[in-house]
Structures
1.
Amino acid sequence: MSVELRNDEYIVSANSQTEAGFWISVGTPFRLPDSAPAGKLGQVIRDALSQSQQGVPTPPRDADSPARPLLDLLGLPDYASYMKGARSVEVYAEGIGTDESIEVTPKRNEGARGGFTTIDEQAKVFPYDSPGQLGTEVIRAFDKAL
């Protein structure tokens, strides 16, 4: 799943992998001011992670853009408008309960055509402890996002 920072707010989006193997945004993204406590951000991220699935049906080629709910939420005409000034962090969870680990990876904004690409050498993996810890690590990762 991804967390974007744009115009002083976090935008948290759940992502699911299609049967064809690519990732799409699912559901309505959640908006949170960048002044929100780390614990609140972490809880919203946990909720988005729980919505992420694998093997969802691949949308037909003529379907609306998977970004449409995000653009409608923000009142933007296109993805290029969204990308201007946005930074992104990818969050991935693996395991369950006390064996759960989290990977937080800052991304590089490559514009509307290139999208966000991971900065793999800046990835951090850690055992999940609490929403506050998760939110704090995501906030720190934004310092490395370009």
2.
Amino acid sequence: MIVGWEGPDDPENPMNWASSRKTFTIQPYFQPLVHLVANTKINRSLASTIFAPGVPKLMAEFGSTSSELASFVVSAYIVPFILGPLVFAPLSELYGRNVVMNSSNVAFLIFTVLCAVSQNMAMFVVFRVLQGLAGCVPLTLGGGTIADLMPAEKRGRALSGWQLGPLLGPVLGPVIGGYIAQEAGWRWMFWLVAILSGILAGGCLLVRETYAPTLLARKVARLRKETGNPNYTLPATQGQGRSPGVLFRRAIFRPLKMLFRSPIVLFMALEVSIVYAYLYLLFTTFTFVFRVQYGFGSGAAGLAYLGLGVGFLVGLFGTGSTSDYIAKKRAAGAAIKPEHRLPPLMFGVILVPLGLFWYGWTAEYKVHWMAPIAGTSLIGLGVLFVFMPIQAYLIDAFTIYAASAIATNTVVRSLFGAVLPLAGQPMYAKLGLGWGNSLLAFIALATVPLTWVLMKNGERIRSSPCFRVDLN
């Protein structure tokens, strides 16, 4: 006997949870679980950059003068994002979201404390990498959680609220960290993150599982126990009868199959990776640029990150309020297709290089400090217009396997984000801020024609038998 939901209105189906449980203070369609996930993401993302203004003090304490190492101690946090999502996304699709999330919360708290008490550079870097390994889980699972909870016509708004975490966290981090570094030292940055982690970890213990296959598997086990009938079973597509080892092997290769057999997934991963790498290059160089060019102290240097934050907020509001509307309008009464999410993408791939030109040349000639910060606002706005449509596309296209699709994206962008910042200061030393950022802008402009092709022919490419991927 195949077990499923008790009709389309089954209250146990996360899609049908009461509206009061799907309400978030800011986002009307946010369920409290997503609120906690989003806040956990803010804390994990805050951890990625809060340390940036304190780098000079850490380098001085541990006796290092290497500019590459100074960049790496910030970007080391995202090195595990290259492989971690390939493990955590499949685990969440085998055992559910909660067990993976709660385990990562405990690990993140432990490694954050160990960063705070590190006694030498090697010790710090090791625990910083392990902190990032635990920190990648909310960013990997969040998209899948939205797919669990929200129908397609409401996902755009929910996604914009979920993105508050990974985008505002890295901006708020240096603002807070700048003054903590100035007044209390770099170690207190990690103590603050540890305190927040403990509070949020406790909150996450109260939330319910959202992944439908896991909930149905529990229902099967309950029915077998209550009735003594072993014939209750899951649909074959959900892995009933296969060993956990077989299921995990299939699941762990699922993101790689998406990446290498779907040209659209590959291109989207590369497009996001370029702007993400630029973002982390800016995160790791802002402190040095504004201290050298404008004489900012540790506290004031953190404020330089607010330009990106303004761009992020405007972009989140814009995409959050229009994404579902645009998709419904383009669908014209029919079912919403993933391609209906893509129109804002073209604005993003133009705004990012425009902002880089503005930021680079105004900083090069030491125009008033508000000018380069205004340029970074354009970059932040463009990044949102790249991130949001692509994330929404992946969630709509892969639904039950959305976590694996997001993992694919996260792996590639994290590889770029970990490596490119190491070249930031040497590039600026060689080319200057003007031509250095112009080089980045020209590379970003090269994606414009490919974006146009994707928007015009995406559905035909996605549905082509040549690129159809069996994910089961």
